Amino acid sequence: MSKRFYITTAIDYVNGAPHLGHAYEKVVADVIARARRSVGEPVFFLTGLDEHGQKVQLAAQALGQSPQAYCDGLADQWGDFVRRLSLTNDDFVRTTQPRHREVVQAILSKLHAEGHFYKASYQGYYSVKEETFLTEKDRNPDGTWDPKWGQVNELVEENWYFRMGVHQDWLVAHIEANPSFIQPDYRRNEVLGFLRSQKLEDLCITRPEARLSWGIPLPFDPGFVTYVWFDALVNYFSVPASLGDPAATGPLGAHYPARDARLEAWPADIHLVGKDILKFHAVYWPIMLKAVGAPLPKTVLVHGWWQKNGEKLSKTTGNVVDPIAVIEEWGVDAFRYYVTRELGIGPDGNWTDDGFKSRYNAELANGLGNLLNRAVNMLNKYRDGVVPKASSFLAAEAAQAVAKTRAAYLEPAPQDALVATWELVNRANLYVEQTKPFSLAKDPTKAVELDEVLYNLVETCRILAVLIWPVMPGTSEKIFAQLKVCAEPSDWNQSAWGGLQESHQVGAPVPLFPRKDLPPKK
Ligand code: MSP
């Protein structure tokens, strides 16, 4: 067994329906995972659901359901979402699963035994919505609380705290010494700026059961449940541990029962998360792992947030994009293409319906779709669908696109990968304009030139299918099917020039992306 490339997404809260932001993160993670598999790396891709905490308890109560029944209902919907997005996740974690709870409790027991926690009384303000304690610093100058905190209650309560003081210096040193630990760089600088200028306060890791019962019971003090973030972050580690990954089970020692090793994945190579949860992943999570004695993840990769028409996505104002509705209308590959191509990993993005349609028409229908259609159509029309003698006019440019696309996928910069791939799409379409095969076909003395053009076109389409597979697996397979190629487009080795053999018979042309702005044919 060898260590797999391990990529995770944030686990989504179950209190609501999936939206564009959730879909984007999951698709980008899937593209990275698929690209790694395509080049032959073993991968473990994990996503899932964050099911504990006050928000879920309140949402369930409002519906008169038990929190577990409420989560089970929504988990089905989210499981369906994962399938609709064509994700290739290897596992799906739910924080209510016993396999997860056991690891959270093992970590708590170990850290408690080693003196990382203390119990203390707190008097102050609490935001139910954000499940966090507030201080006077969080108050507006006029004494009110920002609406983002929701209802703010004053309370006095005992809780368990995790000592942070001893961790600040090594964490700063670690981030300084490992530039790839937090990416992009401006997010890394943000964390460094914060850690250099402020003293980390101890982290409250419990909630009294009397106030919040929907959580993982604290193994060493029955009156408390675990703070939802301490519980949720552990998902990345609990799944490998439950599958016997020695790098995860080892540090837990006697606190966790031994089991057969069925996976080697820890440490994670990439935690892909949104910018709002950076501090949890770049500060608390490494501290938790260091205290446990486990290796740290290699990269926390931080993406931006989507808006729609320049405004925040919001159920209340109705400013939403329903990914499933888009997929039903345009197909899952078009959705995956658009979100990957439109927004690189880092900045914020803006969804507009016009922007979506314009990329669909220009880049998919007129770009890739038209290229394949012309290539297969002309080969059928002029050569009965039989591949002519090999020619390598576009081979060097194809090889360049292959290399650039591959490097970008592995970076990982999936947006750049698509840009590099489309350079080849555009080059091949230009080649058609320049060589005018429809004119060559009219002149029998130009038969050799026509053969050459036709070979270069279909061979380029075959290679393009391999390059787009991580983003548009369905389309990629359709191209291979039309070309009647038996190999798998999911194998990067298939991107080498010369795969199509002379005399090979291709199939009939079928449009990949029907144009949506034209009235349907009568
Ligand atoms: N449950 C926590 C994560 C725990 S990870 C150990 C959570 N859940 S969430 O459902 O609110 O968000 C899940 C992911 O979706 C986060 O990475 C978040 O940044 C991302 N997004 C939520 N809204 C988004 C946009 N509008 N745009 C892009 N991503 C967004 O936080």
Strand content: 5-15%
Helicity range: 40-55%
CATH architecture of the domain at 352-495: Orthogonal Bundle
Q: Give the name of the CATH superfamily of the domain at 352-495.
A: Isoleucyl-tRNA Synthetase, Domain 1
Summarize the structure.
This protein is of the alpha/beta class and 522 residues long. It has helices at residues 20-38, 54-62, 67-84, 98-113, 168-177, 185-197, 228-233, 235-242, 246-249, 278-292, 323-330, 332-342, 353-383, 395-410, 414-435, 437-440, 447-468, 473-482, and strands spanning 5-9, 12-13, 43-50, 91-94, 117-127, 132-134, 152-162, 182-183, 203-204, 206-208, 224-226, 270-274, 299-303, 306-308, 311-312, 349-351.
What does this entry look like structurally?
The chain has 522 residues and is an alpha/beta fold. The protein has a domain of 144 residues: Isoleucyl-tRNA Synthetase, Domain 1 (Orthogonal Bundle). 46% of the residues lie in helices and 14% in strands. The strands form four sheets. Strands 1, 2, 3, 4, 8, 12 and 13 form a seven-stranded parallel beta sheet that branches. It has a four-stranded antiparallel beta sheet with strand order 6-5-7-9, with no helix packed on it. A three-stranded mixed beta sheet has the order 15-14-16. β5 and β6 form a beta hairpin. α13 packs across α15 and α13 packs antiparallel against α17. The N and C termini lie far apart (58 Å). The model has no long low-confidence stretch (mean pLDDT 96). The site of 5'-O-[(L-methionyl)-sulphamoyl]adenosine has 19 residues, from β2, α1, α7 and β12.
